[in-house]
Amino acid sequence: MTIKLFLISILVVFSNTHIALAKDDNVHRLVINVNEKSATSMHTILDNVATLSSHYAKKGEKLLVEVVAYGPGLHMLRADTSPVTKRLTHLSQQYKDVSFHACNNTITKMSKMAKRQIPLLSVANITPSGMIHVVKRTEEGWAYIHY
Predict the structure, then answer these.
(1) Does 12 reside within a domain?
(2) Exposed, middle or buried by CB within 10 Å (0-12, 13-18, 19+), for 29?
(3) Which residue range is the domain that position 33 belongs to?
(4) What is the pLDDT of residue 4?
(5) What is residue 26's predicted lDDT score, i.e. its pLDDT?
């Protein structure tokens, strides 16, 4: 199932190579949501982010990427459970236009269940609701990939 989702995602991205290119500013915009705890999916997402970022950088074009984690996908951005900590740090340093967003609704629920505040990685920006963040971006014309 994961390979199938990966292939579908790649086809969606590369069949529409302009990735939400606004006519007036020549900036590509992509929002990716992560809502499962699978380390394999997380690595695939980061592989794709690196590939796309490199592709557009080589073309001299700007690509904004926002990775939004909610539900079980929040583990990607948790300091105590993330299987991709080093890769997140490396990507955020290498590509300044890639950002990572953690859903505050999920943070609150996980903290309540753990009976403590869950720690986030320093690369994580907090957004009130991950799903609403994704919806807003798609309404603004951002391309969207779901894993």
Answers:
(1) no
(2) buried
(3) 2-6+20-146
(4) 44
(5) 82
Query: What tokens does 31 get?
Result: 């929002």
Instruction: Answer whether residue 76 is part of any domain.
Output: yes
Helix axes 85-94, 39-58, angle to 10 degrees: 10
User: Is there a domain that residue 113 lies in?
Assistant: yes
Strand order in the sheet with 98-103: 124-127, 98-103, 62-69, 27-34, 143-146
Give how many domains the chain has, as a whole number.
Answer: 1
SS (H, E, C) the chain: CHHHHHHHHHHHHHHCCCCCCCCCCCEEEEEEEECCCCHHHHHHHHHHHHHHHHHHHHCCCEEEEEEEECHHHHHHHECCCCCCHHHHHHHHHHCCCEEEEEEHHHHHHHHHHHCCCCCECCCEEEECCHHHHHHHHHHCCCEEEEC
Residues of the chain with pLDDT under 70: 1-24
Give the domain CATH number at 106.
3.40.1260.10
Contact (CB, 8 A) for 87 and 112: no
Residues in the chain: 147
